[in-house]
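User: Design a sequence. Structure:
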């Protein structure tokens, strides 16, 4: 198959040789196409070459600042065996992490975009169902082939593949993409296990693919700071941190989320794990409003807000939001208390986030020690050649005075 060839400007191929997966539009010198070829379209496969027309790899073309997202750093043909090879490599990593055959954790991330060499693609596994999110037109075009490759790799372990790409692509202005099953069918919601705790997952109507799998290790860490404690879980969504705190023996847990639907989900997850639990209360209220109005004092607080900034232009506003939120939590937590605080905003890097939390501690006049630096779990890998892939930042803080 003849692919269009993107020729890079002089001295602009070094990042690809270092396996950074993005080609920026400003690095492109020209595009070579067959004389009878149609115009290059969003999502088309292209090869990328240096000035000497040496092929450096293949990727998906896109309009915008990131013009090519690389799928391979060598000459290749993208066919069934290509997708099967990529998915098998990701599956083997999850085998090594003891996730793919775990009896106690039946949900995990199989494909994490650049971290697994497939920029623009997310695949989460819930029991026997794979939820696929295409974040690029290239992967939207490849959905049928991906479903076929997933079935080949998983065999009978996979009963259905569901595409939840509509919302992500509509945000980019792409229409005509609809969510739905690519292979088989399955009832949603379903109950899955995470460290032997039960959670109801609805991949059809839930946020993201249905669950925030990326907090698994951090939820488990909360066990160390919950026994006999009064715990506040803000932006709780499905109540993951709340369920873990209750399981660890918390004296009382309060869950807060602005969405009534999220609160109802949290209450269901508490109920399926703890019969007639009287240690849990939930509040359908904006987190900052709750923090400003409540008279409650807590031993442990979890701050896990949604991304405050999705673009560089929103960074300053996001930083102010993180500072305000953390300062309020610092002001109301008990002496000797523990604060879990997070940012999933990719444009707020770790250093900026930690400086913002420090500024909040200064404003609240609290003496604070860092106990843990937190990130995403190993099934959300970060390519060493693409440090931008580390999006989840977190701290566990001890409030000394």
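Assistant: Done.
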């Amino acid at each position: 198959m003849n692919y269009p060839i993107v020729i890079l400007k002089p001295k602009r191929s070094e990042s690809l040789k270092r396996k950074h997966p993005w080609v920026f539009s400003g690095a492109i010198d020209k595009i070579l196409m067959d004389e009878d070829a149609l115009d290059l379209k969003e999502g088309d496969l292209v090869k990328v070459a240096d000035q000497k027309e040496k092929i450096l790899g293949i990727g998906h073309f896109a309009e915008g600042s990131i013009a090519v997202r690389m799928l391979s750093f060598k000459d290749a043909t993208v066919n069934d065996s290509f997708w099967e090879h990529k998915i098998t490599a990701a599956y083997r990593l999850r085998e090594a992490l003891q996730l793919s055959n775990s009896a106690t954790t039946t949900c995990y991330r199989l494909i994490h975009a650049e971290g697994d060499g497939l920029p623009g693609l997310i695949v989460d596994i819930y029991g026997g169902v794979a939820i696929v999110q295409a974040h690029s037109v290239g992967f939207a075009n490849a959905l049928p082939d991906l479903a076929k490759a997933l079935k080949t790799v998983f065999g009978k372990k996979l009963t259905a593949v569901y595409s939840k790409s509509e919302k992500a692509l509509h945000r980019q202005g792409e229409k005509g993409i609809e969510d739905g099953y690519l292979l088989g069918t399955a009832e949603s919601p379903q109950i899955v296990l995470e460290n032997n705790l039960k959670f109801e997952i609805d991949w059809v109507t839930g946020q993201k693919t249905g669950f925030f799998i990326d907090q698994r290790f951090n939820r488990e860490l909360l066990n160390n700071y919950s026994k006999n404690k009064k715990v506040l879980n803000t932006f709780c969504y499905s109540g993951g941190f709340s369920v873990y705190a209750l399981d660890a023996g918390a004296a009382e847990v309060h869950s807060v989320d602005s969405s009534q639907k999220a609160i109802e989900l949290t209450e269901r997850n508490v109920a399926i794990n703890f019969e007639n639990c009287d240690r849990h209360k939930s509040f359908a209220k904006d987190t900052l409003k709750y923090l400003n109005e409540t008279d409650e004092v807590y031993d442990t607080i979890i701050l896990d807000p949604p991304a405050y900034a999705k673009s560089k232009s929103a960074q300053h506003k996001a930083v102010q939001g993180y500072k305000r939120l953390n300062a309020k939590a610092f002001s109301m937590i008990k002496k000797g208390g523990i604060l879990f605080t997070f940012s999933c905003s990719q444009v707020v890097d770790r250093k900026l986030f930690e400086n913002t939390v420090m500024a909040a501690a200064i404003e609240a006049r609290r003496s604070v020690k860092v106990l843990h630096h937190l990130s995403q779990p190993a099934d959300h890998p970060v390519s060493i050649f693409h440090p931008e892939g580390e999006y989840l930042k977190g701290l566990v803080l001890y409030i000394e005075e």
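The mean pLDDT is 95. Residues 346 and 391 are 5 Å apart (CA to CA).
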